[in-house]
Amino acid sequence: MLQSEFLKSAESEAKVRGSLTGIPRTNDPYTTKQRYLRVTWKFPIPTYRQFYKCVAKGLNDQKQAVTISTTIKAEFMNENVCEWMDSIDSQVRKLSEDITESVEYFYGHILHFYSSTIRSFAARNGHFRRHMQDIESSFAIMMKTNSYFRWDAIDMSESRDGRVYIVSKRIKSFDLIKCNDACKDMGGYLVELNDNDEYRFVFDFIASLASGNIYFTGMMDSRTNRGFIFFNTLKKAPLDLVWRHGQPDNFGDVEHCVEIGVGGFGLNDIGCDRAGRFVCEVESPLSFE
């Protein structure tokens, strides 16, 4: 913390480098009695970095130009939370290693985003609660990912009925066992489509990614009665799931897996060794009473 130098006034339009938004301006001059600087940024924040170098430029009490800096631990202030949420999106994943550009004024520290004070807002503010649920879900999932399915190689849906859907970004030869194990590492399994509403939700999410065409599910044919089962639980898949026209056809007697393709609406059976992405179904790690 800065204890011996204070800014009487701060430069306008100061910013923090690395996908952070500009510091909000106020009409009141900054004084030596102000304890905290309110900084807004976007979420989710990578957990691998908690300390940042901050620099403030301005005039001291003698109206001399000064530059003061310190290394801080990033935390949240417990006020004006809802105002901050308007700037939340995924850009902070691109935070640079050093946050070095000027800020208007710095004296204190920003309270930790996992503090109990912040969580108390969740119970009282629905807008903030939804964002916090998405943020904490992201962090919880990120902490569980393994080398096969890294955080920087996935896309995650919003929560639906207490679950989120994780889609791999890498195109790799599909392997039912390895991919299901990757889903298990995050507390889930290859997606099990229990009805057409769930299929529509997953299809719309995949279509919004606009990347690739083959997305493997956890469905596979039973090879005994021409029906389909879910690989992880061995439950029978619903018979009324929507399929593409003419599917499933087990073309060449080698199409034993099932994909959600964005090239057309409806499921399609496909060879299990084809290259593509895959979809995990994971229980949302956070819920609010």
From TrEMBL:
Residue stretches making up the C-type lectin domain? 160-281
One of the Pfam families matching this protein, by short name: Lectin_C
CDD domains, per database record: CLECT (cd00037)
What UniProt keywords apply to this chain's record, in alphabetical order? Answer: Disulfide bond
Q: This chain belongs to which protein, by name?
A: C-type lectin domain-containing protein
Source organism (scientific name): Plakobranchus ocellatus
